[in-house]
Amino acid sequence: MGDHNSVCVAQLAHIGLLGRHGAFKQDRASLYSKPLPRCKILQGIYIDDHVVLGVMKRDQLGKPHSPDRVIVEKARAAYKSEALPTSVKKSFDFQKNFVAWGTEVLGPKGLVGSPGEKRMQVLLLSLLTAAMTAVTKPVMQSLLGSLIFPLSHRKETMCTLSRVFAFVEHMHPRRAERLPVIIREELVSAGLNLMVATTNIRTPISTHITCSDATPQSAGAVACDLSLDSSEALFDFGETKGTYARLDWSELDWRLQKWEPIELPEVLSNVIASAPWKVIDETGFRNTRHVNIQEAKAMKRVLVKQAHRSQEPERIINGTDSRVVLGAYAKGRSSSIHLNNILRSCLGWSVLGRKKLVQFYFRSKENPADDPSRNVALRVPKAPSPDIAKLLRPHRTLSVKGNKGVHAPHRLCK
To answer: For the chain, what is the mean pLDDT?
Structure first.
């Protein structure tokens, strides 16, 4: 199945078959590394699997002519027209709780992650491996492969795996070796974090937007409240995939990389330039360090301030001009020990503070936090056009209190 181009052929043939029978449309497709479409019906195709997801009110579930049911019936008719066999054992209809592509979705609770029993099994394997006197390289490779998928449902937890990859890379291919204490600690930590490696898709997007920046000697951050439309757009253009990055890369190393951060469209760039930013942090570092280390510390300070601001679960948005920090935090870990240690120090604030930090990228000259990081006066906002002014109007969400001091009702993320 996986040889040559068979997977690509199967994927495209599946899409073409369903599209010909009206059971697949590109504008509602869930695509890898792309924002989810703004619609109530989503669908995804993964080789021979087809999933249809409906976002609807509870009283609309199970209705005979609902849009999701119509798509499913058209898909089954398409399979039948070509005499293609279907797996009755793997199929399910109109479930609020289900497992698809190895991921468990608990609709009413909004939790998405690897199935709980599988996470518990991997936890036990991690503890048993850490307790063994000696371990072979294939055993460690198999364990790390089992940890990656469940941890990736909450990327922040990936930072628990730091030195173990380099250790396994240099292990003898056939001889069992004793695990150092620090490697045992990483296996135990990663295993325990499996219990919180889930994402709550009902968590609302905060409209309290921040930007951070740093120099080798100082850091600064600014914040403002925007409309929900602007906040959701910045969230959509945030980096969620990440990339491998190193502190010692030169400009040539960066040019050789295929990964490029997502650039903001002109409308959102104008929103950033016209927003009424206020300085929320301006500090000097005790020691001069690499600028990307300081950028990561500035990002952490923003996360801590957001956690102090509210204990409600939120998806918070931060702007950064550091490609290293952008890629490393979205990926969940870094091969740089110093940078990964900062990501580890963010984990408790993210999990216990119930905050999901998503960062968007812009150029240094567009970053308003560049001013407080250099101890200069904050720039004057650009005069907004009427359309931009609407996007700058703060929305009443969990991050913006009402007149009586009570949090106003918030709209959930689509």
So the answer is: 88
